[in-house]
Design a protein that fits this description.
The protein is α+β, with helices and mostly antiparallel strands. It has eleven helices and 19 strands.
Length: about 375
């Protein structure tokens, strides 16, 4: 379960991590009162999605009246599929440098893994591997201060800043262990006050679902956009992404491979959708209909029929086309059980199906963007 930023910061603060002391608000009037206490502030949408700033979910305010106005703009907005119902009023920070630090679980090593970098403020996936410090924690001893200080040294912190970083990292680990976390992340860990103080300017906290029974103190946080909830209610695995080519595949591995191949040829996947190995015509048709509702530039259906019958998938696609029409480029790759009949059914309804995944991916990119991949 993912927790909102304000909850993540509350748990970090409990363990000695400086967070700035923000105040969560649900109305513009509350935001105004919070700004009276805090002063110049940042009004931050509380949603379980990244990239809030670029999407207009973080705005600065220098007066309580400005805070009220900014909160009015943010509350109720649809931010990447999430409706904002609360904001965090955080003190404005003059940031001189941004660092990244997180603790997660390394499934291969079966140990907590610390990742830290002097390149903070951006997605860690975009930071070169050689600019990230990796360090496992021995669960029998826990994170020891000397290990935390060594990590601080490797990302360029010395003296009092190294001591501050070590204290923050030990606090993060203690919170990680106490609350059965999958991920505790601070990005950015901001260097402020003329280079003399480190503050958690943002925070993420993901808790292991199977451990929630041990933590009744957590509020139930409902995850997922409205579209994600709609598709999951059908019984299918679905994650909304930032791209514009909708994807349907059968099996989690096939879906992930489809995203990779689509990206390789220049496509931007709009979602991950695992249609499963035995979904019937109606659930598949409902999921396909939901994809159309996102107004994509194209749709890529990639089916490798084992348990899944290709003719049933084709029937679902044809059903949606006849009922609502498909007004965007649709490319289908279909091989496996009853694939010949499936491709025939699609051809009879003006839909071309491919047998090679790469060829199909190139075709949908060309059709969606009007250029060859």
């Amino acid at each position: 379960m993912k927790l909102y930023e304000y909850l993540a910061k509350q748990m970090l603060a409990e363990h000695g991590v400086p967070t700035g002391g923000g105040i969560v608000c649900t109305t513009p009037e509350e935001a105004q009162e919070a700004a009276r206490k805090i002063g110049p502030c940042a009004v931050k949408a509380q949603v379980l999605v990244g990239g809030r700033g670029k999407a207009g979910g973080i705005k600065l305010a220098n007066t309580p009246e400005e805070a009220k106005a900014r909160a009015s703009e943010i509350l109720g907005m649809n931010l990447k599929g999430y409706i904002v119902d609360k904001v965090l009023i955080d003190p404005q920070l003059t940031i001189e440098k941004e660092f990244y630090v997180s603790i997660t679980l390394d499934g291969m090593a079966k140990l907590p893994l610390i990742m830290a970098s002097a390149a903070g403020g951006v997605e860690i996936e975009s930071v070169p591997h050689d600019q990230i410090v990796f360090s496992h924690v021995d669960v029998t001893t826990g994170l020891l201060p000397f290990q935390a200080r060594e990590i601080a040294r490797k990302i360029g912190l010395t003296g009092d800043l190294a001591k501050q970083f070590a204290k923050i990292l030990v606090g993060m680990y203690n919170a990680f262990k106490k609350y059965d976390a999958e991920l505790v992340e601070i990005n950015p860990l901001a260097l402020t006050d003329n280079g003399t103080r480190l503050v958690a300017a943002d925070g993420r906290f993901n808790v292991e679902d199977d451990a929630l029974f041990r933590h009744p103190e957590f509020p139930k946080v409902e995850e997922g956009t409205e579209l994600e909830k709609k598709v999951k209610a059908i019984g299918l695995a679905f994650v909304q992404l930032d791209g514009d080519i909708a994807v349907m595949a059968n099996g989690a591995g096939m879906a992930m491979g489809t995203l990779d191949v689509l990206s390789y040829y220049g496509g931007r996947p709009a979602n991950f959708l695992d249609a499963g190995g035995g979904s019937g015509v109606e659930p598949t048709a409902q999921a396909f209909d939901a994809l159309l509702g996102t107004n994509p530039k194209g749709i890529f259906v990639n089916i490798f029929g084992g348990i899944t019958r290709c003719d049933l998938v084709a029937e679902a696609i044809v059903q949606v086309k006849k009922a609502k029409g498909i007004n965007v480029p649709l490319v289908v790759r279909m091989v496996g059980t009853n694939d010949v009949r499936g491709r025939e059914m699609l051809a009879e309804n003006g839909i071309q199906a491919y047998t090679e995944m790469g060829e199909a991916a190139r075709a949908v990119v060309a059709a969606a963007y009007g250029k060859e991949a």
